[in-house]
Amino acid sequence: MSKITRRKFIKISAAGTATLAMSGVILDSTPKIADWFDKTPAKESEVERTPTICDVCFWKCSAWVYKNKKGHIQKIIGNDLDPHSNGRLCPRGTGGVGMYNDNDRLKTPLIRVGEGDDATFKEATWDEALDLVVKKMNEVIEKYGPESIALFNHGSTAPHFEHLFNSFGSETTAEPAVAQCLGSRQAGYYATFGEGITTPEPVDFVNSKAIVLIGNHIGENMHNGLVQDFSHAVENGASIIVVDPRYSTAASKAKIWLPIKPSTDIALLLAWIHILIYEDLYDKNYVEKYTYGFEQLKSHVANFTPEWAAKITELDINLIKKAAYEMAKAAPAVAVHPGRHTAWYGDDTQRERASAILNALLGAWGRKGGFYLPEKINVPKYPLPHYPEPDWTWQDITKEKYRGAIAGVTNIIRDASLPDSDAKHKVKAWFVTATNILQSIPEREKTLKAIDNLEFLVVVDTMPADIVGYADIVLPECTYLERYDDLRASKHKIPTVALRMPAAEPKNETKPGWWIARELGIRLGLEKYYPWKDYEELLDWQLRQIGTSLEEMRKEGIKQFERKTPLYIPEGSEWYFPTATGKIELYSTWLANMGYDAMPKYKSHEDNPPGFYRLIYGRAPMHTFGRTINNPNLNDLMDENVLWVNPKVAKIHGLKNGQEVWLQNQDNITSDFPIKVRITERIRHDSVFMVHGFGQLNKKMYRAYGKGAADYKLLSKVELDDVTGGTGMRVNFVTILTEKPQKQEVES
Amino acid sequence: MRYAMALDITKCVGCADCVVACQTENNVPIGYSRDWIVEKVSGEYPELKLHFESQRCNHCDTHPCVRVCPTGASHVIEGGIVKVKHNDCIGCGACIEACPYEARYFHPDGYVDKCTFCDHRVADGLDPACVSVCPTHCMFFGDLDDPESPVSKVLRENPENFVLAPESGTKPQVYYFKERLHF
What we know:
The complex is a heterodimer. By secondary structure, chain A is of the alpha/beta class. Chain A contains 26 helices and 26 strands.
């Protein structure tokens, strides 16, 4: 049996009734939103509104969904009581209506039928699809154990499927948000302060006198409350210090922009630590009272002088020093933001450690203008029996090598699914919920190979993302505007609980994630883990435990609670940090005990080969990676990415603005679609930049298909973070082709 | 009464929330917009400057669009807001030609459309949609004749400001703060 052909991506329907579901998607995709709009906008006071929690990114702003007089969802406005948004959504939140309206959405369950080139999707009823999923699950559980079924998940839907997995005995779960994004940050800050960084990041920007951003492009990433606080800091005249090879939007607001040579950030951070210590600029009382390992750190950084760092980073030594002095002057009202997407070069935990140490020396942790101490309201879990104990979990295939991994590592679970995997335990089947892992995990070829080797692949999504084409069974989820999900009880300055409830009936045959997971659970005989009949019952029970109810929350959307703990460390007080020493560890005993460097070191990384440029990717304010590209409202704001090149580079390659080019990386992988050149001084000569998420490969997303280039296809090389197993992805180089490359056979 | 808008370009990040908020508030069809973002970069790496401008109809005091309109569809209402009566518009496009800001577009339903300063919201005491959503709080709206209005206050605090295409002599009523000088 040829598994390679079995798993062929289902591209375009051939013929016959079985294929109408998907081709129909294309036919009725023309946006005709104006058709059902009222001509005159409705008054907010006169129309129905429903509370939601935005799901266009992880910031999860509480908001109101307004319907027009015809009863159609018209607009989404921030909830004034929400400290995540202060009543103002970002463009993606405002454009969230497009998630609901998008005609390209998945509409019915789909089941793969036929083999190889004849494979196609057949529309199925929920009963057919769910029964088939359960049949396949039982086969794999029987043969390989429940642990061999893995879950790749993301976002609001994740808890429903994690619960399902834990109920049948699998903890083989991971989300790209860890190994591809913030895992190393969490490890680096855990090593230092005994705890990771909460979301939203507890930076006290509104009171900061200085802010340091390391490759963190606030304003292009529209992390809502953070952007608002940053804007206040700009208005307050805070010294903004931005380290970035690209003149980012944030850099344009900066007092000091350090146009660093990519991959040398640790050298800069060590030099700053050196200056603070050797020029006596650190917070002595704070360091003495709260930290562990200062003397070790002092001797460790003795040679990491600004002169040393200037050579490595290609920065003006005076700029390096000036930035350190600005931080010291502002301390403790200074925040070196830990960043969020930190999977860059493979030494990412150590880079995050360096920024954490810098924050500690400045006395910024737990101080006004630095990092506040976030607090949350504890919402009790609905009472359930204990989960079964799995024979093995993600930790058993991860921790031998990546001892500091803090949560499931997607790429390791993927690699344990490869036919030639040498993992202690093998993964045989996948659920992929609400994440297009072909795009969100690098080394796409490996992921495709792993998919070929699976017993089955179930995809739960709202959109026909690339991964959907490889599924055996597709379960269409409704959007966040049509469903209940878990309560939001985030850690913040103000503890809150927020509700998402459906503002409209699910379109077509789509269903909420909780319902899909529950139906599977019941069919697997796991009724005892689903004692509630629907999510209203579960949420109402939870809300009543904290003194409110579903009825009240439907009217308010969000409820604020009094803080019970201090917002900052009270001046001069004793304070316990949850590390092994009870102190902030400048010298990390946790890392040392695991055999890693207890203090960060700089190691050099490969430079761009001649004629190649480092591929730097990032965000645009109106998109959340691939998941918003087909949203009609947001696609209207930006429908393709462009390749930023420095004028010097443009001259070398004879490029013109707007010219279409193709990219080829160091492994001879070329982009599928052309990307237009943007010649701009805003990017260093040794790098090119593009926004992540474009170049979508599934034709069923008709607005997004083939528009711009896909950075993720070019990220075929990774440097794994030795502590967490995270995938450093800023290690790929591309050259610019002005002619369309010969088509390579990359997809089997 | 004289409605006006002011924008602090030192805070704007060019996120286009103003654009999508206007679309959903005013039912502007996908593919069209009443406001838009312009990015302005100058200098050479690494000596660079950059700012964004959220642009729209300037609701000018001297309004060439109203003067050229053959049917009177383009008109001015209280507070100096320039509007188009959709039913009276014959879609001749003269106003589109006359506007130095390219603020007007042909609506697919056959009339010319543009920013209204969200007069339906202003009548209810609300800010225009774009102002009300801006995550950087960089936009201010109000009555210039009221010294306590947000727009009067910020223009007083930031007397260094500019308007777009002043040479056209239209006396536009959307003001942009000059770059902050605190560095």
